[in-house]
Amino acid sequence: MAIRRDMAVFLEAAEITAALCRGRPCPPLLARTVETALETARKLLDPVIVDCWVAVAAVGDGRAVVQAEGDRQRILQIGPHARLLAGARQALVAAVSIGSRLDEAAGRKSRLEGYVLDCIGVMALGKVADAAAAKAEAEAGSRQWGVGPRISPGSLAGWPMEDVHVLCGMLPLAEAGLKLSAQGVIDPLKSAVGLIGIGPGYGGSTVGSVCHLCRHREACWRRRG
Ligand code: SF4
Questions:
Q1: 3-class secondary structure per residue, 72-93
Q2: Whose CA is nearest to atom 5 of ligand 1?
């Protein structure tokens, strides 16, 4: 298990406006608000990653059996896309967060600046998740294995939100300053948990996205493809 807080989160105004405007010209007011909000956001991010490696013991019938060192076996009810872990020998379970300060500030801002700050927070969380993915990629590379996509309960179609409890149950959340509610919501709100498989059964060397299998796809302004 590891807790990491030292990562820098690089965000540029151009990538935020590009994501928000999705190929359309960005209105000048929005562009100016992005610049202002980004300055604010840079002072408010408290990134953290808490992760652990698990062995992937079996995958089949919509389920995966995983086991962290010194822990009991846990069953993930991944559902129809469990095959995404079929190439895995190990998986990195990781919870990521940017802390609560950005959301608190967003609530005190004007509607537009609050919205933009919120969007910047979502993108920053994605960058922290990318840092976790880089760890999986490095480990896979050192073993001459490949990596699978990052998958999460509640996002991957058919994987119930309830498994957030299973993944978080393998991590020292409290030590990282995170807390899981009975409903499966991590506090601070801009947090997420998922896992990335690595193993000789994967062909790629970089963690892919599964936006095409995501239940939030239609509403998501960050989706890829
Ligand atoms: S559609 Fe959006 S929420 Fe779903 S995986 Fe892609 S970026 Fe994440």
A1: CEEEECCCCCHHHHCCCCEEEE
A2: 211
* Residue 40, ligand 1, Cβ within 6 A: no
CA–centroid distance, 213 to ligand 1, in Å, is 9
Task: Give the C-alpha distances (Å, rounded to integers) separating 8 from 27, 124, 146, 163, 188.
Answer: 29, 10, 26, 29, 19
Q: What percent of the chain has pLDDT over 90?
A: 92
- Residue 149's pLDDT is 97
Q: Which atom of ligand 1 is nearest to the CA of 210?
A: 5
Q: Does the structure show a pLDDT above 70 at 127?
A: yes
* Res 225 pLDDT > 90: no
Domains parsed from the chain with CATH numbers: 2-6+45-107+132-219 (3.40.109.40)
